[in-house]
Amino acid sequence: QGLILFSETAQYIMFADNGVLTPTTTTIRGISNYEIDKLIDPVESGTTMSFLSKTPGYTRVFRMATQGQLNNPDIHDISKVVSEWIPDTVTGMIASPQNDFIALYGTSLDDMYFFRTYDDGEKVLLQSWFKWKLPGNVLHAVADNDDMYLIIKAVHSTDTKSRYHILKTSLTLTPEN
After folding, report:
1. Residue 19 to residue 138: CA distance in whole angstroms
2. Are 102 and 121 in contact (CB under 8 A)?
3. In the structure, what pLDDT confidence band is assigned to residue 162 with cuts at 50, 70 and 90?
4. I need a surface site. Which of 39, 46, 113, 123 has the fewest CB within 10 A?
5. Distance of CA 145 to the CA centre of its chain
6. Residues 43, 97: contact at Cβ < 8 Å?
7. DSSP β-bridge partners for residue 16
8. How far is Cα 126 from Cα 148, in angstroms, rounded to an integer?
9. What residues are paired with 62 via a beta bridge?
């Protein structure tokens, strides 16, 4: 369909009518005008892209599905059902297309916020927001296949020194895991 380009206040699609991008055949067309947090990159999660927009006090999460070169995308504020629940101190977002979720975290937060969908191949059967309470502030997160890795900074009650931990969790529900 083309390449989606994000700016702080608008989204664009870059494409060529003949499918070959060259300096003379490339077209860039505006497709939407949503504000985006310039410090947190949008993530691709299968057939959709998610991006964040911050307001004082909370973060909004938008999901975009492209509809082809000449049509505007389908964009929804998926955080509307949990309005003002996700703090504006979020500093990162990851996606796991294989497990149908996006996750938001912040270096000053010990909570990680998730949006997960479940579909049967034809339609979405379930959409859910939930959060994990972690034993420290999340400095970085990554999802790789069916595993998630987190780097956290924790202050232990026995002393005042910060300690760094690498956590790994399996994202599958199989009995052996």
Report:
1. 42
2. no
3. confident
4. 123
5. 16
6. no
7. 26
8. 22
9. 51, 77
CB 12 within 8 A of CB 28: yes
Of 155, 147, 137, whose CA–CA distance to 92 is shortest? Answer: 137
Place of tokens 């052996």: 176
Q: Which two tokens stand for residue 47?
A: 């057939």
CA proximity to 29, closest of 67, 85, 77, 58: 67
Closest-CA residue to 44 (of 72, 69, 63): 63
- The answer, yes or no, to whether residue 21 has pLDDT greater than 90, is no
Sort residue 71 into left (φ over 0), alpha (ψ -120 to 50) or beta.
beta
| Residue labelled with tokens 């996606």 | 95
Binned at pLDDT 50, 70 and 90, residue 93 comes out as: very high
For 163, how many CA atoms within 13 A lie in the half-sphere containing its CB?
A: 10
Q: Which amino acid is at 37?
A: D
CB atoms within 10 A of CB 123: 6
The bridge status of strand 48-55 relative to strand 58-65 is antiparallel
Q: How far apart are CA 90 and CA 70, in angstroms?
A: 34
Residue holding tokens 């034993």?
135
Record the tokens describing residue 35, joined without a space. Answer: 């504000």
The yes-or-no verdict on residue 152 having pLDDT over 80 is: yes
The secondary element (H helix, E strand) that includes residue 121 is none
